[in-house]
Amino acid sequence: MQDKTHDAMIITDADAWRSRDLAVLWHPCTQMREHPDTLPLLPIERGEGAWLVGYDGRRYLDAISSWWTNLFGHAEPRIAAAIARQASTLEHVILAGCSHAPAVELAERLLAIAPREAGREPLAKVFYADNGSAGVEVALKMAFHWFRNRGEMQRTKFIALENGYHGETIGALAVGDIPLYRRVYAPLLAEALFAPSPDSYLCEPGESPAQRASRAAAGLRELLERHAGEICALILEPLVQCAGGMRMHDPSYLRLARELCDAHGVFLIADEIAVGFGRTGTLFASEQAGVQPDLLCLSKGLTGGSLPLAAVLTTQRIYDGFLDDSRDRAFLHSHSYTGNPLACAAALAAQGIFESDGVIERNRNTAAVMRELAQPFAEHAHVADVRQTGMIVAFELTKNGDKRTPFDPAARVGLHAYRSAVANGVLLRPLGDILYWMPPYCVDHAALRQLAQVTRIAIDEATACA
Ligand SMILES: *Cc1c(COP(=O)(O)O)cnc(C)c1O
Description:
The chain is α/β, with parallel strands linked by helices and 466 residues long. 37% of the residues lie in helices and 16% in strands. Helix 5 crosses helix 12, helix 9 runs parallel beside helix 10 and helix 14 crosses helix 15. The radius of gyration is 23 Å and the shape is globular.
């Protein structure tokens, strides 16, 4: 196979990188058997705004913001400069016993912009970790440990939502409900309880998203009552279950969940790792329901998509629960790179861009253009649902364009759509048969029009043969 193509043409730099890569690398979230034949590997030389440029000079619109991390475009000059400046001053220092300006300033900044609810004590402390999953582990351990410190030893369980996702480490996977990632490791995972998802896609005929939300909340109430005194926290992704297929729900669910958590003395952990920092139209998704969590997990867009970093924000009350003369009661969790100065400097630069560029305002326009471009897809014979929350648009493909008849997974509709889009200069990465747009905020209208055209072709081609 390979010989045939190589005989026919000059080996490009891209080809050379492809074969060197496959000789040594094991890629994330990939059945490696599918490289190189089923899936084209894309060696990327550089990024420019919303675009990625391959070693062969081909350009791809990064329609998924490189796994939802990128906010302001690739190689953003202000973020790059902040990292460079920090790198020549202090690249890293242990954060146990030491302190540095980027970690302090970022914490001050995050606490100042965090969701706030009248009458509730504000988020007041920041604990750093170095990726989203690690941030989730921190939040889970903190919630559990807080109750333990109070002598509530029987509070050992977490409630999560069906179809939710919180990362890949063993603890985070335990509160995730996506079989593709979870199934194999199930025997290793701590037990979690799953409450019904408020997902609007699951509305019964005639049911509104708000009604669906309230029905899901009734399921949550039942679970909390059945396990009264055994639960540490409820963890959820506010407004959009991203890895679960960009499934969206009514903000009223968050309000109801907040009230139920309060009534049962259970912490609410908002995992805004994917939806935070403007993705849903507001800086944080929780704001749209006027809800403040007890623990807020942030990562992905935190550094504008430049460096790995996570932050867990929590209240003074939770922090105080660990203060004691005994080390056993302290939160001894740590990562070598906790609060890395480079990552914190990048995050501070990203925060500066939100302010100086009026990003949330600008996104309102961009989201309106996305809405206009997405609407016509609803008429497509194989599109069962077009949904949008802010800067996220998703298209759910099914056999007959209704919700009851999914495509046969063996038809690999999403994979065909991916290949079609890549051939036309757009990096889409469907979740099963769900295509979505989640571009960097700097994407311009011309690129969005191209994205819509390429998506249309991808859906036509992928569904034609299925
Ligand atoms: C991506 C994601 C995570 C995990 O973050 P990583 O940095 O990939 O470990 C956790 N929760 C949500 C909601 C996510 O989307």
